[in-house]
Amino acid sequence: MGRAGNFQEKPKKGPGRKARKQQAPVFSFKLNEDGGEPKKLSRRQKQRAKKRELKSQTKEKRPSKKQKVTPHEDDELDSQGEEQFSPDEIAELEQNEQKAKFALFEESSDEDQDEEDRGENDEEEEDDSGVDDDDDYGDLEAASKKLEKKKKAEMADADAYMEESAAKINLHIPTLAEVQKELEQPVDMANINSRIKDTAFVLADFNKRREEGRSRSDYLAVFLQDLSTYYSYNKFLMEKLLDMFGPTELIEFLEANELPRPVTIRTNTLKTRRKILATSLIARGIDVDTISWSKVGLVVMRTPGNVTLGATPEYLAGHYILQGASSFLPVMALAPKEGEKVLDVCAAPGGKSTHIAAIMRNTGMIVCNDLNRERVKALVGNFHRMGITNAVITSQDGRTFPKVEENEAVIEYALKKRNVKLVPTGLDVGKPGFVKYRESRFNPSMELCKRVYPHTYNMDGFFIAKLKKMSEMETKSNDHDEEEG
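Predicted structure:
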């Protein structure tokens, strides 16, 4: 049963499925038509190619040690019959070996410089205009002037546009009688705020923006009434502020008064330094930043809910005191020296007095007075906490001390009645004092005083004047003689 077997060898038809030859490799890059090398090699390929090239150069120059050479008349052989190389040839061979050895590192360093080379190429392209480095300052100055001129032109165009727009808009401001009648009804604060801005816009250029037949006093009366209603100030105070600032700046001042001032602290340099204190507070989660114009001030940006600035270990140890930034300025203007005597008539709670003591390094003497005995308790507590040892604390009427004046009117009185003069405060913060205010005229040196406003420096308002005593004698004047007579 079954099919007869055929045991003759069958001819092979092919290599079989598993024995098929592998196809030629397909490269992802294209070859150059002339050299047959890749158009772009990778960093690793460049390193290998350079290494192979150096090795081939070395082999061509140095024959094998076992290779016998036929001696010539001019060639020298060693004892084994091999060619003896000259010292120059040996040095050249060693140099080529070193090149081959460090080719990889040289290539790596070249690759690391690629970014810098690109940057240099970019700079060279920018410098193609032929400008030398010595002329950079002149070019920058010229570019700055050109930019400033362009900004002025843009501002002029903007002002012209505003004037054109204002001419097309006819703002109607109600009369004072209409405003007062309006206040008898429930007050619409949004409407009053809008009218305040419109009135200030008209007053800024009154001759061009006013309504026909209406005087400036009409607009000012409505403006003061609206300001008093919106910001809850009495008219007397609002009139004084308007005389100081003007309509537009007065609104900025009133708006600034509605916002809280930043919390600031002053470092007690008798016990620590600002950098160390800031590091400690940041570690407790208190976000602080330095005050640019002060060497000891820090502004508190954020405080965690479970941390109180007046109860931290640093505060209890006397490393800092809570103090408004504007009260740094009088002490900075005074610039006390070690060993001097200083009188602080209204010293409580002790911010300026402790600042003076820190600058004087607890030398000299500070007489700290305050009329309110309850406030003196805070003064004593701060002195003990901050380590002040050069102070004498009193509680009596400051008028019993030699007079200390403030604001332009009383400074003017001091200049007339005392042999003193105003000197520069040395402060970059603050606006100059008034030389004239309404009908009053003051000494021209009053510009040396400093006025700090909340809306300009985001600090509490302050007035700073630095007087220098010329002698103990009082200045005589006709007014003074008449008062004595």
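Summary: The longest strand covers residues 466-474.
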